[in-house]
Design a protein that fits this description.
The complex is a heterotrimer of chains A (223), B (249) and C (650).
Chain A lengths: L1 H6 L1 H26 L6 H13 L9 H31 L13 H24 L14 H8 L3 H28 L8 H27 L5
Helix pairs in contact in A: 2-4, 2-7, 2-8, 5-7, 7-8
Chain B lengths: L2 E8 L6 E8 L8 H14 L21 E3 L2 E2 L20 E6 L7 E3 L2 E2 L2 H8 L21 H11 L6 H5 L6 H12 L8 H14 L10 H5 L7 H19 L1
Parallel strand pairs in B: 1-5
Antiparallel strand pairs in B: 1-2, 3-4, 3-5, 6-7
Chain C lengths: L8 E2 L16 H8 L5 H4 L3 E5 L3 H13 L2 E5 L17 E2 L11 H11 L6 H20 L14 E2 L9 E2 L5 H18 L3 E4 L2 E9 L2 E9 L5 E5 L2 E4 L20 H8 L4 E2 L4 E7 L17 H4 L1 E5 L16 E2 L1 H5 L9 H13 L11 E4 L1 H27 L8 E10 L2 E2 L12 E3 L17 H23 L11 H20 L5 H15 L6 H21 L11 H25 L23 H4 L1 E6 L8 E6 L14
Parallel strand pairs in C: 1-21, 2-3, 2-11, 3-7, 11-19
Antiparallel strand pairs in C: 4-6, 5-6, 8-9, 9-10, 12-18, 12-20, 13-17, 14-15, 14-16, 16-17, 20-21
Classes of the chains: A mainly alpha (223), B alpha+beta (249), C alpha+beta (650).
Chain lengths: 223, 249, 650
């Protein structure tokens, strides 16, 4: 069954849909957690600490976080490899372009491909910036995420990269969620409008939710 | 009407092709697009030039032979087949681009003619009900609920023209394949082979080098028979169901 | 002046020796029992060539392969799924009597013999009616999505010329659905390796060795390569020859080459003049017209046909008041009204147009009006029943038939004539079989609506697969044929020379221009109404066109490539000979019957008048030489069950 999944173009799309939904679920939680920044450094930092003690005493310190990280990395890798392989198949399947160009033809596909690449690069930067602190401006302080966030959004490039990525994310989710519904076979003519609406709402809420943080820092609401 | 045509000319499968420009005059709005090409060809023959090769047969929108990309749209600007497109959809003085279906699974044979035998092989992989002649039970032995019969019919309407592949930016044959899967899988007669059918047909579709679905919806927009995009959703569902069941065995 | 060609001679009668004697309802069982069988283990060793993949060819290929024969099959289309059976709209008849409306096998048999105006063989027609029942079962089992009622059972409707509801249908695309069923069965056998399928390959000649059909010569339409294929038997399922008329409802590439070449190699051609003109086609719009589109005659169930009472009334249809309209079919034929058989409806349309009461461009059309139906059943119901036909009409004419009446005019649709076959569907060349529209057998002088699909599938699924066994079992071949065989050499040379000559003439006229000229001539003199003098004129003119053709034809390109002009020109060569035989047959049959209407032979009220004492036979013609008088062989028709009466639909 795993073999059939991975060998088939339909199966690979299923892998993309499932991994995408896993990441989407994570993002919703992540976004809600981010909003805690508006309630001050104590609340935000203790939330960050709680993430590490989650599941205790059943789980050891940070185990829950690591489990989540492993699942997420697996999802990202599966999503990216499937996307890469499917895109290669798609490009090979249509090697000659039409002489008469139609702009609309590949809008969704193009946004998804470029959006995916942008998001992939962003994730790397985001982890190096706020998790490991490797590329963090102004001296990264482990255990003080509130300050780290403010540092990042105090640079112009930090804001530009973040906001651009979040906008790409919104577009990606808008087509991706609806697309996943169809890939998993739950879409139908009757439910199509509902799925489109949910996709739009999710995209909008996540975009606004995530962007509110840099905007908050820039406007001084968060300092 | 007087028109300028830019037509893809390619001597054979191995030759390079290019767009050639032709002027046609005296075109009537009541002509079909193919009758307009007939007019051009009559002139070309008399001038001793090679007429434009294009596939066509019934000219009433049902055989699925005609296959022209007209101004970037599979079958042209209206939702119909190239043979049922009429010149009243164009204006005097227009320049019209005519190209063949483009997909690596549909190699060009000559000019606007492509090889669509990949579709036949997808059907051969499982697009049938194993019902040997003479072994059939009485037709009324198995009633089929009208909604199921109608659903099957809507999908069985596919004419196998390949416009879905031509329109898809990924050259995917998902709409074609899903139409046959949905037609047969919903019927009680198709039920015994329900799982193998969808698995084998999708595998053959991949094998032929068609692309995957990115839900752009271009296929359903181009389909002259109005096979809906959710047909693909239905096939995905069937495929997942079949994969699950195969995993359990 | 009479052309030499018309001076035909009459040879020995031709007899159908295969139909058993005894009660008509038992003949098919008897024949099946008497037929020798081929041991299943040996079938693999027999190769059968099938030309064509329509309803007849597709179903035959699939069934023969299923039985274990090695089938080599051909179609000129790029896929077997595109054969022109796909365009049949209305439905398929079957004597299921699901409606309990008095239908039975005997009634279908009776209706078909009567509808064919007593020019068909009783034994064949009865078999067809018997098998009709099995066809529906077979197609349903294949997943053909016939229309159903809310209870889940199959829906039926009544169709032109009958008073029972026995026509099964799949919206307006019955032919498509049945063909896809056969195509899918065929595909299964191709995948299983039992059929070697050659798409885009056209049969150009027949190989007859020692008096038996042993193979064909065919051209690969992509590479232009001419190849030979050998078999133990050859089945022609290549359809009809309506394209002789240039404008017809046939597909553009439907052609008569396979049957005509077989005729030239010895197969008799029967009743070539029996062509069916379909009453409900969309009228032509101008010179550019390349084909005509049929609107299913099921439209006549609810639409009313009329023309203005006054000549030259050019008001728009909606402005003509009720009492100034002539619903001429309802007036002349009160009991059948708009549902009279096709030939009667067609001729009536021609008559009113000849009177100057036709409508639309050139006065070549009559109205088919749904205003009453929309009032009676509501627009929604009309849409449900005829939606796709209305859409098709609107697409072609840019007129909305929900608001203005449709315009229709008759067009050539089907050819009842074809290769003469016996009860086993074998032609006069042993080992050569003809099925579907390619043969002449079941429809007599006129085919009833929804019977073509029935006959094609009956021949392909059930009749041929039973009868061909007998031939193969009794005539095992022990010798291999190769390309070196002198007969093959001759046939190959003929074909190659013909194509070479077509390319070499390099004249100044296109293939289409000749085809159109021939078509116009045939429509005028051998169309809906025929006369002695008109037919003689056509017989004089055809050899002239043929002579001009070989002098002035221009075919660009070469024979070693994909060359559609060459394909077309080569088909016209055969039309130019077949047309002559059609005219001669029409001339010799000095009576009116079914689709063949001779103006000299009509009742005082203008109905077709049969002359049974003289013409109760099928005319099977034997080829001699191009342009030389053929030999007529008569097959006497005996009616033991349905006694000839003058048809009356009044």
């Amino acid at each position: 069954m795993t073999r059939t999944m991975w060998d088939s173009s339909v199966g690979k799309k299923t892998v993309m849909a499932v991994s995408g939904l896993i990441m989407l679920a994570y993002l919703v939680v992540h976004m809600l957690g981010n909003l805690k920044i508006f309630f001050g450094s104590d609340e935000f930092n203790s939330y960050a600490h709680w993430l590490r003690t989650l599941g205790e005493p059943f789980l050891h310190y940070e185990w829950a976080l690591w489990i989540i990280r492993v699942v997420l990395v697996a999802a990202v890798v599966a999503h990216a490899i499937s996307a890469y392989q499917l895109s290669r198949r798609d490009i090979r399947a249509r090697p000659t372009k039409y002489v008469h160009k139609k702009p609309r033809a590949s809008y969704a596909t193009r946004t998804m491909r470029w959006g995916g690449i942008i998001l992939g690069l962003f994730i790397v930067w985001h982890i190096l910036d706020l998790t490991t602190g490797t590329v963090h401006p102004d001296g990264f302080q482990a255990g003080h995420p509130y300050q780290n966030v403010i540092d990042t959004f105090s640079t112009w490039y930090g804001n530009v990269i973040y906001i651009a990525a979040v906008l790409a994310l919104g577009l990606h989710i808008r087509h991706g969620f609806w697309s996943a519904a169809h890939t998993l076979g739950v879409g139908s003519r009757r439910r199509d409008r509902a799925f489109k609406a949910i996709a739009n709402v999710l995209a909008l809420v996540l975009t606004v939710g995530f962007i509110s943080v840099p905007v908050g820092v820039m406007t001084g609401v968060v300092s | 009407m007087k028109l300028t045509l830019r037509v893809w000319r390619q001597q054979n499968a191995d030759a390079d092709g290019a767009m050639s420009t032709y002027e046609v005059d005296g075109i009537s709005a009541d002509m079909s697009f193919l009758e307009m090409l007939d007019t051009l060809n009559e002139e070309l023959i008399l001038k001793g030039e090679d007429p434009v090769a294009f596939d066509h047969d019934c000219r009433e929108g049902i055989c699925g032979a005609c296959s022209l990309v007209i101004n970037g749209d599979a079958h042209g600007p209206e939702r119909t087949t190239s043979c049922q497109l009429h010149m009243r959809s164009f204006k005097d003085g227009d320049t019209i681009d005519v190209e063949p279906w483009r997909a690596s699974a549909f190699p060009v044979v000559k000019d606007l003619v492509v090889d669509r035998s990949a579709f036949d092989r997808i059907i051969q992989a499982g697009g049938y009900v194993t019902a040997p002649t003479g072994a059939a039970p009485e037709a009324h032995a198995t009633p089929v609920p009208k909604p199921d019969a109608d659903f099957a019919f809507e999908h069985a309407e596919c004419i196998g023209c390949g416009a879905c592949v031509a329109a898809c930016p990924n050259g995917a044959a998902m709409l074609f394949t899903s139409a046959k899967v949905n037609h047969l899988n919903v019927l009680p007669q198709g039920a015994p082979e329900r799982e193998t059918r969808v698995l084998d047909m999708v595998a053959q579709m991949d094998e032929e080098g068609f692309g995957g679905c990115t839900l752009t919806g271009e296929c359903a927009t181009a389909c002259p028979k109005g096979i809906p995009l959710v047909s693909i959703t239905g096939m995905n569902k069937e495929w997942l169901r079949a994969t699950r069941k195969a995993g359990k065995r | 002046m009479t052309s030499e060609y018309a001076e035909y001679t009459t040879g020995e009668p031709v007899v159908d020796a295969k139909a058993p004697k005894g009660p008509v309802s038992e003949r098919w069982d008897t024949r099946r029992f008497e037929a020798k069988l081929v041991n299943p283990a040996n079938r693999r060793k027999h190769t059968v060539i099938v030309v064509g993949t329509g309803l007849a060819g597709g179903s035959a290929g699939a069934t023969l392969a299923e039985q274990g024969y090695h089938v080599v099959q051909f179609c000129y289309q790029d896929s077997p799924r595109r054969a022109h059976s796909i365009a049949a709209q209305g439905g398929i008849n079957a004597a299921k009597n699901y409606r309990n409306d008095g239908d039975s096998i005997h009634r279908l048999f009776y209706d078909t013999v009567k509808g064919g105006d007593f020019r068909a063989r009783e034994s064949n027609v009865h078999r067809l009616a018997q098998i009709s029942v099995e066809i529906i079962d077979q197609c349903v089992a294949q997943g053909v999505p016939f229309a159903r009622e809310y209870g889940g059972l199959l829906d039926t409707r009544s169709f032109g010329g009958v008073q029972v509801s026995r026509t099964f249908y799949a919206r307006g695309q019955t032919g498509q659905q049945l063909l896809l069923g056969a195509y899918q069965a065929l595909s299964r056998q191709i995948a299983a390796g039992n059929i070697e399928m050659h798409p885009r390959t056209e049969m150009l000649d027949l190989v007859v060795v020692d008096g038996r059909a042993r193979g064909i010569v065919a051209r690969d339409l992509i590479t232009g390569k001419i190849d030979t294929y050998y078999a133990d038997a050859v089945v022609l399922a290549s359809g009809g020859y309506g394209n002789v008329f240039y404008l017809s409802t046939n597909a553009m590439n439907s052609n008569a080459t396979a049957i005509w070449r077989a005729h030239r190699r010895g197969a008799y051609f029967a009743n070539p003049c029996f062509t069916q003109i379909h009453p409900t086609c969309i009228p032509r719009t101008g010179e550019h017209q390349s084909k005509l589109t049929l609107m299913s005659e099921s439209l006549r169930n609810d639409g009313r046909i009329w023309v203005p009472k006054a000549k030259g009334d050019d008001r728009p249809a909606n402005e003509i008041p009720e009492d100034e309209r002539d619903y001429y079919l309802e007036r002349i034929y009160p009991s059948f009204g708009n549902l009279v058989p096709r030939d009667i409806a067609s001729r009536a349309a021609k008559n009113v147009c000849d009177e100057g009461r036709g409508v639309g461009p050139g006065g070549q059309g009559v109205y088919l009006d749904f205003a009453d139906a929309i009032r009676r059943m509501g627009r929604k119901k009309v849409e449900e029943k005829y939606g796709n036909l209305f859409d098709m009409y609107e697409r072609i004419t840019a007129e909305n038939p929900y608001e203005v009446p449709m315009r229709i005019y008759p067009a050539v649709h089907y050819t009842m004539g074809g290769l003469w076959v016996d009860y086993d569907l074998q032609t006069t060349v042993p080992g050569l079989f003809a099925i579907g529209e390619a043969n002449f057998s079941d429809h007599g002088a006129n085919r009833l609506g929804a019977s073509a699909l029935m006959q094609g599938l009956a021949d392909g699924y059930f009749v041929l697969p039973s009868t061909i066994n007998d031939y193969l079992a009794r005539n095992p071949h022990h010798d291999e044929i190769t390309d070196e065989h002198p007969v093959v050499q001759e046939v190959l040379a003929d074909t190659e020379d013909r194509l070479r000559l077509l390319l070499a003439v390099d004249g100044d006229r296109t293939p289409d221009s000749f085809h159109r000229e021939l078509g116009e001539l045939m429509w005028e003199f051998c169309g809906m109404a025929r006369t002695d003098s008109g037919l003689r004129k056509a017989l004089e003119r055809i050899p002239q066109i043929r002579e001009e053709f070989w002098r002035r034809i221009k075919v660009p390109g070469t024979g070693e490539e994909f060359n559609q002009s060459l394909e077309k020109a080569n088909r016209i060569v055969d039309y130019l000979e077949l047309a002559e035989l059609m005219c001669l047959d029409a001339l010799h049959r000095d009576e009116s019957c079914g689709g063949h209407f001779r103006e000299e032979s009509q009742t005082p009220d203008g109905e077709a008048e049969r002359r049974d004492e003289e013409f109760s036979y099928a005319a099977a013609w034997e080829f001699t030489e191009t342009g030389e008088a053929p030999v007529l062989h008569k097959e006497d028709l005996v009616f033991e069950y349905v006694h000839p009466t003058q048809r009356s639909y009044a």
